[in-house]
Design goal:
The complex is a heterodimer of chains A (194) and B (320). Chain A contains five helices and eight strands. In chain A, strand 2, helix 2 and strand 3 (65-68) form a beta-alpha-beta unit. With 194 residues, chain A is α/β, with parallel strands linked by helices. Chain A has one domain: Rossmann fold (3-Layer(aba) Sandwich). Chain B is an alpha/beta fold and 320 residues long. Chain B has two domains: 8-133 and 285-305, Aspartate/ornithine carbamoyltransferase (Rossmann fold, 3-Layer(aba) Sandwich), CATH 3.40.50; 134-280, Aspartate/ornithine carbamoyltransferase (Rossmann fold, 3-Layer(aba) Sandwich). Chain B is built from eleven helices and nine strands. In chain B, the strands form two sheets. Chain B has a five-stranded parallel sheet, with helices on one face. In chain B, helix 2 (55-66) crosses helix 10 and helix 5 (134-148) crosses helix 10 (281-300). Chain B is globular and about 55 Å long. The chains are: A alpha/beta (194), B alpha/beta (320). Chain A binds chain B through residues 69, 71-74, 77-84, 86-90, 118-119, 122-124, and chain B through 21-22, 24-25, 28-29, 32-34, 36-43, 67, 297-305, 308.
């Protein structure tokens, strides 16, 4: 692996980052009342569930968790050869009047978050929407910023930043790969989370 | 996935699973207060219904609207077709207006295939003559998979007027593709002679089959397509092949009773049977919207719009 490839966060780093974010979320709203966590499929929902159990451990109150798939709200329909794969959406509570914290793994161009906010407004009118991400890698294409960030990582635009979660991938890690090197070695990976 | 969906043969088993899985997400959309997503904004879907239809046309219209596509409904009465316009000229008009997808229902078998030769958009067969009705088969497969939990190995009887039924053909092809065991049951006059080559069993005895079924699928007796006397009387048909309350009572616990609609109550199915817990006829209709949304999304959600600025390039690619 090149000097640009490697592990940005390991399992312990991720656990500590999520614990800190959980503290920050309840500090910002002075508690967990009226809070809903909505994770963006299909990594953010696992992170949202972990944040919820951290908040429950700290505050003693249960926070509802939803999962949101933003595929139908993407702005690149017609720009891809195949219709993007669809994941589950399940928001079990009425979000109107509540504080919704969107949770995603990587914040990159901001387009996913734009789509997620559009999707949320189809479910109700939250009193406010906040954003928590595990990694902010920069290169925004829309005026969007995160309220809670696990780690800010300077990247090149064509780097591939990958989050692994144990529920899906067997272990927890944030990895970065030099896209140009990967392409040369014949293992081109489609762009990571946007 | 194939560019057009004219027949269940245009879909691989993997394609079918993809359509059904994606339909799952659209069912969730259908349960929301706002049942609409912007997935196909800017795309145009034409419903070209040249044969009478209520549920399929409304289902496709609702599906396309819930995907935010622009929908144009075109039916034989009150259109240029009533003035004698040919299918080809109608197709060329729709082509010139930039239809990304044309959903066609026609009384002549094979007309959707003919349509693909004249237009660049995707063509979806919504029922052509006695040939096929693939989206009905897909919604039936969805309903069976949801209720029973699998398609492989399930035992399905398709009962009645198989000869005139495009539903029976598409559903048989779909079920066989997914590994189900299909038996066609009906009077010998209404079983097509080539049926054994579909990979299905044929029987003339509904009572022998009923105790072992997972799904009892009743077909409508299509009097409007029957030019001959295929059976002596409606009463005899009902007695020999109708799903009566007595027969329904012999179905195994948990077996499904299905019908593509519209029903002839008292002919192929008795009125009190449709109220049994195993009857999922209304759920078939509800699932139809989600399945059609899924199919339209998978066809139109990728690639370049037929009306977009790069449309010409894409057409060249697909033709190459």
């Amino acid at each position: 692996m090149s000097s640009r490839g490697g592990t940005l966060l390991d399992g312990d780093d991720i656990r500590r980052a999520l614990t800190r974010i959980a503290h920050e979320i309840i500090e910002r709203d002075k508690g967990a009342t009226g809070l809903v966590l909505v994770g963006i499929a299909n990594r953010g929902d696992h992170l949202a569930r972990r944040l919820a159990s951290e908040i429950e451990r700290i505050e003693g109150s249960r926070v509802p968790v939803g999962v949101l798939d933003i595929t139908f709200y993407r702005d690149d329909i017609g720009m891809r050869a195949e219709a993007p794969e669809v994941h589950e959406t399940r928001i079990g509570v009425d979000i109107t009047g509540r504080t919704v914290v969107l949770v995603d793994d990587v914040l990159f161009t901001g387009r996913t978050i734009r789509a997620a906010m559009d999707a949320l407004t189809d479910f109700g009118r939250p009193s406010r929407i906040r954003l928590a991400v595990l990694v902010d890698r920069g290169h925004r294409e829309l005026p969007i910023r995160a309220d809670f960030v696990g780690k800010n990582v300077p990247t090149r635009r064509d780097d591939d930043v990958r989050v692994r979660v144990r529920e899906l991938d067997g272990d927890d890690a944030v990895l970065i790969e030099d896209q140009a090197l990967t392409a040369r070695s014949g293992g081109a990976i489609e762009g990571a989370a946007t | 996935m194939n560019r057009h969906v004219l027949s269940m043969h245009d879909l691989s088993a993997d394609d079918v699973v993809r359509v059904l899985d994606t339909a799952e997400s659209f069912r969730e959309v259908g349960s929301r207060v706002i049942k609409k997503v912007p997935a196909l904004r800017g795309r145009t879907v034409v419903n070209l219904f040249l044969e009478d239809s209520t549920r399929t046309r409304i289902s496709f219209e609702l599906a396309a609207k819930r995907l935010s596509a622009d929908v144009i409904n075109f039916s034989a009465g009150g259109s240029s077709v009533a003035k004698g316009e040919s299918l080809k000229d109608t197709a060329l008009t729709l082509q010139a207006m930039g239809a990304d997808a044309i959903v066609i229902r026609h009384s002549s078998s094979g007309s959707p295939l003919q349509l693909t030769r004249w237009v660049d958009g995707h063509v979806v067969n919504a029922g052509d003559g006695t040939h096929e009705h693939p989206t009905q088969a897909l919604l039936d497969l969805y309903t069976m998979r949801e209720k029973i939990g699998r398609l492989e190995g399930i035992r399905v009887a398709i009962v009645g007027d198989v000869l005139h039924s495009r539903v029976a053909r598409s559903l048989s092809f779909g079920l066989v593709k997914m590994g189900a065991e299909v038996t066609l049951i009906g009077p010998p006059t209404l079983i097509p002679p080539d049926a054994p080559s579909w990979g299905v069993q044929v029987s003339y005895d509904i009572d022998g089959a009923i105790p072992k079924l997972d799904v009892c699928y009743m077909l409508r007796v299509q009097r409007e397509r029957q030019r001959l006397e295929y059976f002596p009387s409606v009463r005899e048909y009902n007695r020999l092949f109708g799903l009566t309350a007595a027969r329904a009572a012999v179905l195994p616990e948990g077996a499904l009773i299905m019908h593509p609609g519209p029903m002839n109550r008292g002919v192929e199915i008795d009125s009190d049977v449709t109220d049994l817990p195993g009857a999922v006829i209304e759920e078939q209709v509800t699932n139809g919207i989600a399945v059609r949304m899924s199919l339209l999304y998978l066809l139109l959600g990728g690639g370049v719009s037929a009306t977009g600025p790069d449309a010409t390039d894409e057409r060249e690619v697909t033709r190459a």
